[in-house]
Amino acid sequence: MKKLIAAVATVSMMLVFLVACNTNGTVSVSLAEVTRSLFYAPQYVALEKGFFEEEGLDVELQTTWGGDTTMTALLSDGADIALVGSETSIYVYAQDSRDYAINFAQLTQTDGTFLVSKEPRPDFNWEDLKNSNFLGQRVGGMPQMVGEFVLKKHGIDPHRDLNLSQNVDFANIPSAFSSGDYEYVQLFEPTASVFEKEGTGHIVASFGEESGKVPYTVFMAKQSFLNENEETVQKFTNAVYKAQQWVQEHSAEEIAEVIHPYFEDTEIDMLAASIDRYKQQGSFAEDPVLDEEEWENLKDIMDEAGELPTDVPYEELVNTKFAEEVLSN
Question: Which residues fall in a coiled-coil region (predicted)?
Answer without folding.
Answer: none
